[in-house]
UniProtKB/TrEMBL annotation:
Belongs to the PC-esterase family. TBL subfamily. Pfam families: PC-Esterase, PMR5N. One of its GO terms (cellular component) is Golgi apparatus. GO terms for molecular function: O-acetyltransferase activity. Residues 101-153 form the Trichome birefringence-like N-terminal domain. It comes from Vicia faba. Keywords: Membrane, Signal-anchor, Transmembrane, Transmembrane helix. It is a single-pass membrane protein. The chain crosses the membrane at residues 16-37. This is Trichome birefringence-like N-terminal domain-containing protein. It is found in: Membrane. Residues 155-429 form the Trichome birefringence-like C-terminal domain. InterPro entries: TBL, TBL_C, TBL_N.
């Protein structure tokens, strides 16, 4: 959010720059056009215009860059630039502020019959764990809540527009099973705009199965892929000899070995949170490893901070922010009542969002993530979903996470689909859209 604020400050000088550019380009264009009429070599135009991409420090002009890669002839190039500029110049200061300064995380849930955005039985990508209605959940009101931020216009998700935004691109989710939850939601939301579902398929023919995490779905008509790579911690899970035994360790100083698959993505959505509260990570006894050293004991907060710093360095080193937009999704709340996930905790009875959230403090992990992101060279947008999801005790699979029901173990951590992760994706859509404008 801080970073977005600072982008606003750049608007003014950029406008001046853009304005002088208009003047310059008109003159340039007129003279060039006369020349090109005589020796007609359209290709030289795009070469000559390459320096324009220098202005892409402003989000308003980002799309100019991509023009230089296409075969635009002089005849339509000037039109496109003029169009772009007048749009930019027409936008009021308030409008720019609304997009950049609006706090999406502050708002309330509104019952809206136009939701859900896709039918539970029309999406083949929802796996058993999230297919609550398929597993026998009868109440469906939990699919009909829309998030309404307090002070901003939050557009309804439009799958066609989203597909256009990612046309020719790779949208990649990396993280734990909650990110897989969000990724499946995105597949379903996008599928609703595709006429022929056969033109959407997994690149290597893989079926979505639990516990596997290595998928790339291709949307042929848009030449884009929507991918998911499992990584519980974003850093490398390893093994090391401690005394006589080989023990599982976490290399908090080394990025996940799957990272080569994340590179080259155009939009990256990361998360890690839940696995840091499991016994091994919490106790931190002979578990965290740096180099060849396995810490006899390390505080989980310290370890989390080190791991995220490792992730941040990897992003700063390997991600070109001119090509790739990076998002980090904050932690999703669980709603176990009367126990924990393994000790009879439950949430079955909830069919309505909470009226108010228990005044839980903003999780320390999110605070750490925010601190680290602020210091990064690469701009990272936070998908700040923690507080809005706190209300949604009704959104979990509870006993409907399996076909065969067991009332003893409930899932109050993941989310039914359609459901709450659809809103997280609406936020992603909002950010991608406002970045363009
Ligand atoms: C630009 O003009 C060329 C030739 O007239 C045409 O082939 C191309 O599709 C146009 N591009 C756009 C984006 O309108
Ligand atoms: C910008 O403003 C001018 C003059 O008010 C108007 O003619 C033009 O259509 C506007 N452009 C856009 C894209 O709204
Ligand atoms: C679902 O919501 C509607 C509208 O608020 C309400 O009339 C209905 O009773 C709710 N159904 C259940 C099962 O809560
Ligand atoms: C989605 O966007 C497209 C293109 O802007 C538009 O034609 C369509 O009506 C929109 N769909 C909905 C449901 O708003
Ligand atoms: C993902 O698939 C690729 C290609 O089939 C394979 O090389 C890689 O090992 C797989 N990674 C995981 C984590 O399954
Ligand atoms: C970890 O250390 C922080 C301060 O560095 C402390 O506030 C926190 O209570 C410690 N956590 C555990 C589980 O020991
Ligand atoms: C949460 O805090 C607000 C103000 O800080 C208070 O009005 C409200 O009663 C609190 N709610 C609960 C459930 O404690
Ligand atoms: C995210 O949301 C929480 C709770 O609404 C808020 O305290 C925090 O400042 C937000 N973070 C950012 C970066 O906006």
């Amino acid at each position: 959010m801080e970073r977005q604020g600072s982008l606003c400050l750049k608007v003014k000088p950029t406008r001046v720059l853009l304005f002088s550019f208009t003047l310059f380009s008109s003159i340039f264009f007129l003279s060039f056009f006369t020349i090109s009429l005589s020796n007609s070599s359209p290709n030289t135009l795009s070469l000559n215009l390459q320096p324009i991409s220098l202005t892409e420090s402003s989000p308003n002009t980002l799309s100019l860059h991509s023009f230089t890669h296409n075969n635009f002839t002089p005849a339509n190039f000037s039109f496109l630039i003029d169009n772009r500029l007048s749009r930019t110049l027409n936008r009021s200061k308030d409008e720019v502020k609304m997009v950049k300064g609006c706090d999406l995380s502050n708002g309330h849930w509104v019952f809206d019959e136009r939701y859900p955005l896709y039918g539970a039985d029309s999406c083949p990508f929802v796996d058993e764990a999230f297919d609550c209605q398929g597993n026998g959940r009868f109440d469906s009101n939990f699919t009909k809540w829309r998030w309404q931020p307090q002070h901003c216009h939050f557009p309804r998700f439009n799958a066609t527009e989203m597909l256009e935004l990612i046309r020719g691109k790779r949208l990649v989710f990396v993280g734990d099973s909650i990110n897989r939850n969000q990724w499946e939601s995105m597949l379903c939301m996008l599928l609703s705009a595709v006429k022929d579902p056969k033109r959407v398929f997994e690149a290597r023919g893989r079926k979505i199965v639990k516990e596997k995490g290595n998928y790339s779905f291709r949307f042929l008509d848009y030449q884009c892929t929507v991918e998911y790579y499992v990584s519980h911690f974003l850093v490398h899970e390893s093994k090391a000899r401690v005394g006589q035994k080989r023990r599982p360790t976490l290399r908090i100083d080394a990025i996940d070995h799957g990272s080569s698959r994340w590179r080259g993505a155009h939009i990256l959505v990361f998360n890690t949170a839940h696995w840091w509260s499991h016994y091994k990570t919490k106790a931190g006894i002979y578990y965290y490893q740096e180099g060849t050293m396995v810490h006899p004991r390390l505080n989980v907060s310290t370890a989390f901070r080190k791991a995220l710093t490792t992730w941040a360095s990897w992003v700063d080193k390997h991600i070109n922010s001119k090509k790739t937009q990076v998002f980090f999704r904050t932690s999703a709340p669980s709603h176990f009542r009367g126990g924990n996930w393994n000790s009879g905790g439950h949430c079955t009875e909830a069919t309505h969002p909470l009226k108010e959230t228990l005044n839980t403090t903003y999780p320390e992990k999110n605070v750490i993530v925010e601190e680290i992101i602020k210091r990064m060279k690469t701009p990272v947008t936070l998908l700040n979903i923690t507080s809005l999801s706190e209300f949604r005790i009704d959104g979990h699979p509870s006993i409907y996470g399996r076909k065969t029901r067991s009332s003893r173990i409930q899932d109050c951590s993941h989310w039914c689909l359609p459901g709450v992760p659809d809103t997280w994706n609406e936020m992603l859509f909002f950010h991608l859209q406002s970045r363009l404008e």
